[in-house]
Design brief:
By secondary structure, the protein is of the alpha+beta class. The protein has 3 domains: about 110 residues, Acyl-CoA dehydrogenase/oxidase, N-terminal domain (Butyryl-Coa Dehydrogenase, subunit A, domain 1); about 100 residues, Butyryl-CoA Dehydrogenase, subunit A, domain 2 (Beta Barrel); about 150 residues, Butyryl-CoA Dehydrogenase, subunit A, domain 3. The protein is built from 10 helices and 12 strands. A hairpin with a 3-residue loop joins strand 11 and strand 12.
C-alpha cells in the first residue's frame, strides 16, 4: 500500500504549527510502518499487539499532554493528532494509549500524592507499567453514580469489594485505578496486580475491538494500603474529569478511522469499473457519498482543532468535549457504513480495513458516554435544565 497522505480538503494543515505537524507525521509514520502491517492478523486472532508498547512509549505517546515526571508535555492539539493517527490504525490501539494516558496517568497526575506521582508516572510513561481504569460496572454504565463497589476503612488499609466490567487493558494491567463508594463518598484507589482478593478475567466473543484487551475486574475483601488512595480524588466528579480527558482523545481519534475509510473508498471507486467500463467514481450517487464523507470529516477536523485550542487555553468545558465526541463518533461510523457500501461485497472482507473500523466504531460511539448521554450533557448546557432522569 502507498503511504497515507492525509485527508485535508479545506487546508486544515494551515492551522497547525511546525511542532504539531511533526508530531502528527511521527505518529503517521509509526502507524504505516508498525500498526498497518500487523493489525489485520491481530484483529483476526483477537489479540493486542503488545510488542508495540515499548515503541509507543519511546515516541512519547503515553501521557503525551501531561507535564513533568518524564511526561512529554505536549499540547492538547498534539495529543489529539497522535490519537487521530493511532485510530487510523485501529481503535483498539488508540484505546490502549488513551486509557494509559487519560484514565490512568491523568488521575495520578491530577489527584495523586507526590509520592504516587514519582512512583508511577515515569514507569507508566515508559511502558514499564500498564494501567486500566475501573469505573464501569456490570449494571451501571451510563449511570456511574449507581456503582455498587464499596471500600471501607480497616486499620491502615481499605477493604474493597465489587465488580467492574468492560475494562480496557484489564487483564494485562499492572495497576488499576478503581473507583468505589465509601462513607466519605466516591474515592479513587490504586490497586496493584497481585493484590490478594483482586482477580481479572477477559471478555471473549467480541465482534468489535478485537485487537483490544477487554476485561472484568473482581474485588473480594481486597486490602488496599492507605497510601494507595488518591488523596485528591474525592467524589464522582473527579472520575468524570478523567473521562473528559479521554473523550477529547476519542473525538480526535475517530477522525483517523473516518479518514482511512474515506480514502480506501475513494481509491477503490477510481479503480473499480462497472457499466461501460467506467470507474464507478464517475457515477453521481457514488460522488454524493464521497462528498458527504469529505464534508463531514472536514467539519469534524475543525471541531477538534477548536476544542483542542480551547483546552490548551483552559477554556474547554465538559459539554464542549461532549459535542466533539458525540458528533465525531457518529460521523466516523456513518463514513464507515458508506465506505462499506461503496466497496460492495469487497467491503466485508478484511483485505480492506473498512469492516474492522465499522465494527470498532460501533463500540466507540457507545463507550465513555453514549450518543444520548452526550446529547443530554449538551442539552443541560444550552437550557440550564438537567434531563438525565
Amino acid at each position: 500500500m502507498e503511504p497515507f497522505r492525509g485527508v485535508d480538503y479545506l487546508h486544515i494543515d494551515s492551522l497547525f504549527n511546525e511542532d504539531e505537524l511533526l508530531v502528527r507525521q511521527t505518529a503517521r509514520q509509526f502507524v504505516d510502518d508498525r500498526i498497518t502491517p500487523v493489525i489485520r492478523d491481530c484483529y483476526r486472532e483477537g489479540r493486542f499487539p503488545m510488542e508495540l508498547i515499548p515503541e509507543m512509549a519511546k515516541l512519547g505517546f503515553f501521557g503525551a499532554n501531561l507535564e513533568g515526571y518524564g511526561c512529554p508535555g505536549m499540547s492538547n492539539v498534539e495529543y489529539g493528532l497522535i490519537m487521530q493517527e493511532l485510530e487510523r490504525g485501529d481503535s483498539g490501539v488508540r484505546s490502549c494509549v488513551s486509557v494509559q494516558g487519560a484514565l490512568v496517568m491523568y488521575p495520578i497526575h491530577a489527584f495523586g500524592s507526590e509520592e504516587q506521582k514519582r512512583r508511577w508516572l515515569p514507569r507508566l510513561q515508559s511502558g514499564e507499567v500498564l494501567g486500566c481504569f475501573g469505573l464501569t460496572e456490570p449494571d451501571f454504565g451510563s449511570n456511574p453514580g449507581g456503582m455498587r463497589a464499596t471500600a471501607r476503612r480497616d486499620g491502615d488499609a481499605w477493604v474493597l469489594n465489587g465488580e467492574k466490567s468492560w475494562i480496557t487493558n484489564g487483564s494485562v494491567a499492572d495497576l488499576a485505578v478503581v473507583w468505589a463508594r465509601t462513607e466519605e463518598g466516591v474515592r479513587g484507589f490504586l490497586v496493584e496486580r497481585g493484590t490478594a482478593g483482586y482477580t481479572t478475567s477477559d471478555i471473549h466473543g467480541k465482534w468489535s475491538m478485537r485487537a483490544s484487551v477487554t476485561s472484568s475486574l473482581s474485588f473480594s475483601d481486597c486490602r488496599v494500603p492507605a497510601e494507595n488512595v488518591l488523596p485528591g480524588a474525592k467524589g464522582l466528579k473527579t472520575a468524570l474529569m478523567c473521562l473528559t480527558q479521554a473523550r477529547h482523545g476519542i473525538g480526535w481519534g475517530v477522525i483517523g478511522a473516518a479518514m482511512d475509510c474515506y480514502e480506501t473508498a475513494r481509491r477503490y471507486t477510481l479503480i473499480r469499473k462497472q457499466f461501460d467500463d467506467r470507474p464507478i467514481a464517475s457515477h453521481q450517487l457514488v460522488q454524493e457519498k464521497l462528498v458527504w464523507m469529505i464534508t463531514e470529516i472536514t467539519k469534524a477536523q475543525l471541531l477538534a482543532v477548536q476544542v483542542g485550542r480551547l483546552k490548551d487555553r483552559g477554556k474547554a468545558e465538559p459539554a464542549h468535549v461532549s459535542m466533539l465526541k458525540r458528533n465525531n463518533a457518529a460521523m466516523a461510523l456513518e463514513c464507515a457504513r458508506l465506505s462499506r457500501d461503496l466497496l460492495g461485497a469487497n467491503g466485508i472482507t478484511d483485505e480492506y480495513p473498512i469492516m474492522r473500523h465499522l465494527c470498532n466504531l460501533e463500540t466507540v460511539k457507545t463507550y465513555e458516554g453514549t450518543d444520548h448521554i452526550h446529547a443530554l450533557v449538551i442539552g443541560e448546557q444550552v437550557t440550564g435544565i438537567p434531563a438525565y432522569r
